[in-house]
Amino acid sequence: MLAGGGGGARLARGFTGLLQQVAPLVVTNPGDDFEYLGLLVCPDTDSVLYAVSDEIDPIRGWGRCEESWGVLDEIKRLGGPGWFSLGDRDIALHLMRRAGLAAGQTLTEVTHDLLARLGVEGLPVIPASDQSVQTVVHSTDGVMAFQEYFVARGCAPQIKELEYRGAENARPNGALLSFMAAGCDCVILGPSNPYLSLAPILSISGMVDALSQVGVVAAVSPIVGGDAIKGPLAKIMGEKGLQPTAASWANEMKKMYPNLINLWVLDVADAECAEQMRAGGDAVLV
Prior knowledge:
Number of domains: 2
CATH superfamily of the largest domain: CofD-like domains
Order of helices and strands: EHEEEHHHHEEEHEHEHHEEEHHEHE
Radius of gyration: 19 Å
CATH class of the largest domain: Alpha Beta
Distance between the termini: 18 Å
Structural class: alpha/beta
Helix content: 25-40%
Strand order of the largest sheet: 9-10-13-14
């Protein structure tokens, strides 16, 4: 399963109740990763880690539950950058990540270690690549790193183009390729933003070709009843001149990745759209 953002994290959490029936692998989006105050922060990976360990904040939909903010408050008091909200428990995990990387571990190895420390067994979580892939936003306000657009600017600038810097030189995670070679039955593209969460993964050199070897590639709609489950997808589609509908989303995915997806999963709220897609020859589950 490819997971990005809140939708992907929630779907990954759903797999924890199916471990007696399936053997899943969760692949996370590296495009949001960035360095903040000397720490490597991996927002999409961390959201999955917190979701599958039942430690994600259920109100905010990100970060740790039962969080405290002493370090951030002191950073602000000292005049440091406080625009990115890291709680104390969150910082502890990032410190552990930095220590692992400094000791020579790969990001995949560090992520595996953190998952074990959070008490999760039987549900491996890996970044899509151990090489850096950075989402860069070309907007009406200039070129900016993803977190500046997403957090500091609150997704306000209009996107002109998205760049997945480093993707052409990155390689798919070796653990993913081994998992697929061992007999992967299905690839699921989670209900994640196709531009901000899935594209950084699928832009990695060789990734689409590798996934295309699997018999079933299913995409779960992040649009339900004419709006995004979470995040700025509806806004971005509007900027592209698209209606935020499940049908528009599916057409965009077909244009972005021709012949990759052969099964579409829509919410019951979009049953009429599902019937129209079936009439056009698509395989659709509701």
